[in-house]
Request: fold
Amino acid sequence: MRIRFDRDTCIGMFQCVEEWDAFERNMDAGKADLDGATEVDPEVFEVEVPDGAELDAEFAARACPVDAIELYDDDGDRVV
Reply:
């Protein structure tokens, strides 16, 4: 499972931070950061979801008010 985060779309409500500790507040930028992620496109970051963190990652994606977070299963199908 992997998570994709569009930081440009992020508006800094930080609900994702409350749901999963892989997201961190970046108060200087007014946006969240995704710990350990690789930038795959400008301002778009991806990281593999560790075993046992799938539910937290899903909650983080569902909590985002602007849909800046997408979650994909191992087959590449979008879950959230």
